[in-house]
């Protein structure tokens, strides 16, 4: 209902754009391009973007037509308006999202701030950036896109890329750049633009499907743990439902399992803090064995390496590893060489990355299905844009089967029937394994075909572009190229367009609709049909025995019931995914606040901020107060240790005569030593600026070291607490509590290290006047 109101609003703005277009289209190229500086001036003088919208959209639409030969359809202009207003726009597959985005990007860039368009893969970002870039440049705005080889991009080039008016990027590229931008050591090294306006292409994939795994930057190697093999062995001895329980994509030990673990490892309390590592490794091994499936979640390559499979696209994720030791636990399970684990130095989830933008919008062919969740998480509304031409694709009724055998053979029969006429067929399956199997069946039937799955992603663009030609048969994983346009070959329209055959119920309806949407684009003919069965991956019934009897044909089942089981399973899977995403948000919640605090402090320091001497003394005073309160200071050696570790490499007379029963006197003495230390460090500098630079760098180092330590710990904690799940425990609550505690600890460490870095560093200024610091 509400959508209708929003559509009315879009339509009324569209009308204004169309009116302006009449005038604008009469302008010469030069006059058209000159509008940009006029709009910019008017914006500076106080007109709002909403005021400028009709003219700016009209100008960009005319420019699109003149440069690209494509005039945006009315529905594309409406989509553009929705994107400017910050909606998530559902535009049916093939309706031309790329062109729609040009108008709101142009409008928002008139502010002088950079606007970003994020797509899911580099190929699309480069292609669209290049193609649409011509129009922006014609209009006098700059546009950038990712370099073909990211390794060759130095900081200066990055700065140029991020200073463009309009930036095409990938979600991953942008995320990592955000993290790297907050790891720089000098203000001058920062390169990222302000996070002002972003449009996310394939928004459901980015905001939902990819949101579970945070982006992570790894640093130095971690000392290798020897617990993997042992815990892997332990886990193989466990029995489901007796020692552990698997539910809602989580797995945890029962009290019986915990008792077994305590006996096995010879420890009194499995959940004790001192056994954190054992607990964590058992959880990792359990997850590796119970939740992570070979050839579905990951594959073991010919080189004996574990590589992850992207569930959404079916592609192998080269170089991407599960964090917190999970990857190593899988390697242990698969008995391949355990690879090096690295410490996390920075991480962020997509949710929090995009929520940092002042204004965010998104578009996708399939986003309406998840509108409630998107509203909950991102406070964003979905609006459905009508199609340019009616969709005439025939989405045929799903066909239900008891087992995979009849399901696959029926699908093959259908392919044969269609292929005989020359009509191209795209077969979409759920896993690499399934594509291989289907390919074999087609070979048996002598049907020539292309296979597009995780193993040969390299040829993807090539194969997909041919999938709409006469006689083409293409077997693909569920990726089926979101964002790829399958053009119909000559004579194909007459044969009924592209046929999409789906085999197996997918994890969610969005992915199914994406696959269907490869056909019937822009009013093209085509049909789609799904073949599903009780043996589809998503069906994971409680009552396996009964199910097996049905699958084997030993037990009868009504059509209605069959349908109910399979579709119910998909619903449950969708709900579980929603729960994991909510959890990911909650996990990152703690980190989010701390991250913004730390990054702000960093920025302040980089921008020339520094701590005044009085502030340093105050920090030291608190450190000392804590120390004296928590330690037995009647023992002189404790004080000696503290001084040597934190204040000075020399011990003086004052300590030997100090009265150890007077805590205040001890504190006064230690503070005076700090004061003296600061003075003697300051004396080494003739130049006040250099001294401040030293203080700044020493503080930054303490902050960074502490932060890295903290997020690396939190990464591990996440896995450790997931193994504590049970009816009585709220793991998110436990995580948040422990995370908060470690944050407070960390704060203390940082403060101690600031003082320590300043007092115990060796500083010198070389001949060129550069500062050299050797930190303690
Ligand atoms: N206004 C237009 N006039 C002519 N052709 C257009 C227009 N808009 C888009 N197209 C063409 O329609 C095709 C589909 O566009 P595009 O790939 O942007 O669709 P999409 O919405 O991103 O599809 P998907 O949902 O699959 O990602 C492209 O070949 C594009 O050039």
TrEMBL record:
<keyword id="KW-0067">ATP-binding</keyword>
<dbReference type="GO" id="GO:0065002">
    <property type="term" value="P:intracellular protein transmembrane transport"/>
</dbReference>
<keyword id="KW-0547">Nucleotide-binding</keyword>
<dbReference type="InterPro" id="IPR036266">
    <property type="entry name" value="SecA_Wing/Scaffold_sf"/>
</dbReference>
<dbReference type="GO" id="GO:0005524">
    <property type="term" value="F:ATP binding"/>
</dbReference>
<comment type="similarity">
    <text>Belongs to the SecA family.</text>
</comment>
<comment type="subunit">
    <text>Monomer and homodimer. Part of the essential Sec protein translocation apparatus which comprises SecA, SecYEG and auxiliary proteins SecDF. Other proteins may also be involved.</text>
</comment>
<dbReference type="GO" id="GO:0031522">
    <property type="term" value="C:cell envelope Sec protein transport complex"/>
</dbReference>
<dbReference type="Pfam" id="PF07517">
    <property type="entry name" value="SecA_DEAD"/>
</dbReference>
<dbReference type="InterPro" id="IPR011115">
    <property type="entry name" value="SecA_DEAD"/>
</dbReference>
<dbReference type="InterPro" id="IPR036670">
    <property type="entry name" value="SecA_X-link_sf"/>
</dbReference>
<feature type="domain" description="Helicase ATP-binding">
    <location>
        <begin position="78"/>
        <end position="239"/>
    </location>
</feature>
<keyword id="KW-0653">Protein transport</keyword>
<dbReference type="GO" id="GO:0006605">
    <property type="term" value="P:protein targeting"/>
</dbReference>
<dbReference type="GO" id="GO:0043952">
    <property type="term" value="P:protein transport by the Sec complex"/>
</dbReference>
<dbReference type="InterPro" id="IPR014018">
    <property type="entry name" value="SecA_motor_DEAD"/>
</dbReference>
<dbReference type="InterPro" id="IPR044722">
    <property type="entry name" value="SecA_SF2_C"/>
</dbReference>
<dbReference type="InterPro" id="IPR001650">
    <property type="entry name" value="Helicase_C-like"/>
</dbReference>
<keyword id="KW-1003">Cell membrane</keyword>
<dbReference type="InterPro" id="IPR014001">
    <property type="entry name" value="Helicase_ATP-bd"/>
</dbReference>
<dbReference type="InterPro" id="IPR000185">
    <property type="entry name" value="SecA"/>
</dbReference>
<keyword id="KW-0813">Transport</keyword>
<dbReference type="GO" id="GO:0008564">
    <property type="term" value="F:protein-exporting ATPase activity"/>
</dbReference>
<dbReference type="Pfam" id="PF21090">
    <property type="entry name" value="P-loop_SecA"/>
</dbReference>
<dbReference type="InterPro" id="IPR011116">
    <property type="entry name" value="SecA_Wing/Scaffold"/>
</dbReference>
<dbReference type="GO" id="GO:0005886">
    <property type="term" value="C:plasma membrane"/>
</dbReference>
<comment type="function">
    <text>Part of the Sec protein translocase complex. Interacts with the SecYEG preprotein conducting channel. Has a central role in coupling the hydrolysis of ATP to the transfer of proteins into and across the cell membrane, serving as an ATP-driven molecular motor driving the stepwise translocation of polypeptide chains across the membrane.</text>
</comment>
<dbReference type="GO" id="GO:0005829">
    <property type="term" value="C:cytosol"/>
</dbReference>
<feature type="domain" description="SecA family profile">
    <location>
        <begin position="1"/>
        <end position="563"/>
    </location>
</feature>
<keyword id="KW-0811">Translocation</keyword>
<feature type="binding site">
    <location>
        <position position="76"/>
    </location>
    <ligand>
        <name>ATP</name>
    </ligand>
</feature>
<keyword id="KW-1278">Translocase</keyword>
<dbReference type="GO" id="GO:0017038">
    <property type="term" value="P:protein import"/>
</dbReference>
<protein>
    <recommendedName>
        <fullName>Protein translocase subunit SecA</fullName>
        <ecNumber>7.4.2.8</ecNumber>
    </recommendedName>
</protein>
<feature type="binding site">
    <location>
        <position position="485"/>
    </location>
    <ligand>
        <name>ATP</name>
    </ligand>
</feature>
<feature type="domain" description="Helicase C-terminal">
    <location>
        <begin position="411"/>
        <end position="566"/>
    </location>
</feature>
<keyword id="KW-0472">Membrane</keyword>
<dbReference type="InterPro" id="IPR027417">
    <property type="entry name" value="P-loop_NTPase"/>
</dbReference>
<dbReference type="Pfam" id="PF07516">
    <property type="entry name" value="SecA_SW"/>
</dbReference>
<dbReference type="InterPro" id="IPR011130">
    <property type="entry name" value="SecA_preprotein_X-link_dom"/>
</dbReference>
<feature type="binding site">
    <location>
        <begin position="94"/>
        <end position="98"/>
    </location>
    <ligand>
        <name>ATP</name>
    </ligand>
</feature>
<keyword id="KW-0963">Cytoplasm</keyword>
